[in-house]
Design goal:
Layout lengths: L1 H24 L2 E6 L7 H16 L4 E6 L10 H7 L4 E5 L22 H6 L4 H12 L3 E9 L2 E5 L14 E4 L2 H9 L3 E4 L2 H10 L5 E4 H6 L8 E5 L4 E7 L1 H5 L3 H27 L1 H7 L3 E4 L2 H20 L3 H14 L1
Parallel strand pairs: 1-2, 1-3, 6-7, 9-11
Antiparallel strand pairs: 3-10, 4-10, 5-8, 5-9
């Protein structure tokens, strides 16, 4: 009987130990939401980032990606993450809107056209400053993903190239500071989301569009516009962030895995974005569009008018915005 009791006790103990080991071995789940469709080049980078996080953490983190608004809608990602309803999300810089206006700094005309700046960005003072401000707003940033610096002014009948070409043109606008730079050219910007531009162009609500050159193809702008001027006027980025309490509860090794994966993904995003925009001008030509690639001289003429107007409207009396402009200039140099 004593032998039987000992055997049973040993079995129970082994089961308990096994259960405890399993509990220790179970990875920490990270549900990550984003709005991009599966075939988008940045969506593919996010998937690759998730795999890298899991590898770098030796399997202790389980990153679960929910794209195409399948977990949380694009407008709810920031709040849902800050509240802790989900652990992680990705947003485009514009989606911070009035909550953190300095996140839109990359629409400073021609300020981010040089990809070398984006290669330096993740470890720059500017990125560090934005990370601090994001933390103040309730999220912990973990990765920066450059999306495009290849923009296009779309129009009908003629290309928009020189500053005087914009005089009186109703054009798609973005945020107030960037709109000020368009107004300095004499244009009349009308802010709207990318999904509304095609209809606005087709119905004459606006005369000209502004978008990523690859988006001009995917959104079929060539059906309603026939001239396209490719110019590095703005840059756009997505960024990944986590709930601060969740992030703080991770081990140092897990945080290090997120850091290393984030730095790798930042470079992957640059490569993917270059590839995504490379073929777009030829596609627009194939669709019957007249495509003009802005020259350095033409870019300089636009920048001399647009950049000062943006800087004045962006910084204003806000010390955070003024500091952001200074850090960007430092990065440019």
């Amino acid at each position: 009987m004593n032998i039987l009791k000992s055997t049973i006790a040993a079995a129970i103990a082994a089961t308990a130990i096994g259960g405890a080991s399993q509990a220790i071995a179970d990875p920490t789940a990270i549900r990550c939401s984003h709005q991009l469709p599966p075939k988008h080049h940045i969506a593919k980078v996010i998937d690759r980032w998730a795999e890298e996080v899991e590898t770098a953490s030796n399997g202790s983190l389980d990153v679960q990606i929910f794209g195409a608004n399948s977990l949380v809608g694009a407008r709810e990602n920031i709040v849902s993450t800050a509240k802790g309803d989900i652990e992680c999300a990705f947003s485009v810089s514009f989606q911070w809107g009035k909550t953190l206006p300095i996140m839109t700094v990359t629409v400073a005309p021609f300020a981010f056209g040089d990809l070398e700046m984006w290669r330096k960005w993740p470890e720059s003072e500017a990125a560090g400053y934005l990370t601090e401000k994001l933390r103040d707003k309730g999220v912990q940033n973990v990765v920066w993903l450059f999306t495009t610096n290849s923009s296009v002014f779309t129009s009908n009948g003629r290309n928009l190239v020189a500053p005087e070409d914009f005089e009186g043109v109703k054009i798609r606008g973005l945020v107030p500071a960037f709109n000020a730079s368009l107004e300095a050219l004499g244009a009349a910007p009308v802010s709207m989301s990318g999904s509304k531009v095609y209809e606005a162009l087709s119905t004459g609500v606006i005369d000209a569009g502004l978008t990523d050159v690859a988006a001009a193809v995917s959104r079929k702008y060539y059906e309603v516009q026939d001239h396209f001027t490719v110019v590095p006027v703005i840059s756009v980025y997505f960024h990944g962030y986590m709930n601060p309490d969740f992030y703080d509860g991770l081990t140092n090794e897990q945080k290090a895995a997120l850091d290393s994966a984030g730095k790798k993904a930042a470079m992957w995003a640059i490569e993917a974005s270059e590839a995504a925009s490379a073929s777009a001008p030829d596609t627009l030509r194939e669709k019957g569009g007249t495509v003009h690639i802005a020259t350095p001289k033409e870019i300089a003429a636009l920048e001399s008018i647009m950049r000062p107007a943006f800087d004045a409207a962006f910084s204003g009396d806000d010390p955070d915005s003024q500091k952001m402009i200074e850090l960007i200039k430092k990065l440019e140099n």
